[in-house]
Amino acid sequence: MNVPLYLLTFAHLICAAAGEDHVSLERQLLEEGIRSGRRTCRLYCRVGIGFHLQIHPDGRVNGSHEPNQLSVLELFAVSQGVIGIKGVYSNRFLAMNKRGRLHATEWFTDDCKFRERFQENSYNTYASVIHRNHRTGREWFVALNKRGKAKMGSSPRVKSQHVSTHFLPRVSLHDKSERGFTITDRSKERRKSPPP
C-alpha cells in the first residue's frame, strides 16, 4: 500500500485540528515503515501467553506480551526468500551467532540474514542463512520460549514444526482505546411498547 506523503501529512493536520495532540511513537514508527516501502510490523509468537519479538538498544532480544515501541520491526528483502529484521526504535539488526544465540547488532552482517518461510498455518518461520548443524544439516530458527526469552537456535528442540518458531507479522495502527466494534444504545423509537 503506497500512500503519498502529502495525504499522511494532511491526515496529521486534520487529527491535530480535531484536538488529538498526541500521536504515539509506536504509531509514527509504523507509519514511517509503510511510507518507506519496507514491511514494518510486529512479529507475534503464539508460544505460552503470546509474545511480540522485541529488540533492545543494548543488544538483548526477547519477547513482550504487550506490544510496545521495542517490538516495532522492519523486515526488508536481502535476496529472494532472504530477509533482514531491524528494530526500528533500537536501530539494531536481529542476528544469530555461530552458537545459535540471538542478539542484536549495530551493523548488518551475514549473521543478520534469515530465510523466511510461510507455513500452512499462516505463520512464518525465520531460519539463519549461514548457521546450521553442520553434521545433520538441520536449520537453526528464531524462537522464543514460553516465558518470552530467546531460545538457542542450535537446540535440538527448536524445529520448524514447533510453535516457538512460528511468528505472525502484525501491522497494527490502532490505539488501545480503539476497538473493532462499537456498542450503541437502541433508539428510543424502538423502545416503545407494542400497541395493545
UniProtKB/TrEMBL annotation:
Record GO terms (molecular function): growth factor activity
Signal sequence segment: 1-19
Residue segments, region Disordered: 174-196
Matches recorded under PROSITE patterns: HBGF_FGF (PS00247)
UniProt xrefs under SMART domains: FGF (SM00442)
Family label: Belongs to the heparin-binding growth factors family.
Protein name: Fibroblast growth factor
